[in-house]
């Protein structure tokens, strides 16, 4: 049931990665070298930004103008802060942009709770991975909120994994879950062992749509 979203998500991620790479390749600060600075004899030490013209006292004239242009073309900062903050901000913007949003049902608090769960599972859960002949067995455990988050997220993810063709099941433990993922295909077994707990957890891109549904008050994990 999640097959469409994980394929679309993978394609999207590849496009993003490609454009990030292209952006990194774009000429930016190299403008320094190309636009006619010449290093005066003896000024062998570069200035604070690596540009020889900066040596010994601030920026002025043509150089300062170029810096202003660099700043103007770079635009204002785009990152809102922490990843969870940014994820919520994006969802709120989507809801605001959609005239059909039913604000009487919107529940941003639920989305926040889920993002805290994601933090707990990603950063704080303890994992003990045991290779099996046909896959991997993972004990995922934690204390308090971490254990609660594991019990909410890992079994739900096991259901979503059926779209990958792997067999995934979970068993409740007092402080977490036992997650067993197997395959009949030996190459997939090798992959499962390489992915381990977190690599398996990030399979599929269903979180994005789930987050929006959660915020709309239409989905409970
Ligand atoms: Cu999520």
How would you describe this structure in keywords?
binds copper (II) ion, 221 residues, 4 strands, four-stranded antiparallel beta sheet, 13% strand, disordered N terminus, alpha+beta
Average pLDDT, rounded to a whole number, is 80
Counting DSSP E segments of at least 2 residues, the number of strands comes to: 4
- Quaternary arrangement of the chains shown? single chain
- Radius of gyration, taken over Cα atoms and rounded to an integer in Å: 25 Å
Question: What ligands does this structure carry?
Answer: copper (II) ion
**Helical content class:** 40-55%
Number of helices: 8
- Main sheet characteristics: 4 strands, antiparallel
* Shape descriptor: extended
Spatially, the strands of the biggest sheet line up as 1-2-4-3
Q: Which parts are unreliable, with pLDDT below 50 for 5 consecutive residues or more? A: 1-57
Structural class category: alpha+beta
Total domain modules: 2
| Fraction in beta strands | 5-15%
Give the distance, in angstroms, between the N- and C-terminal Cα atoms. 15 Å
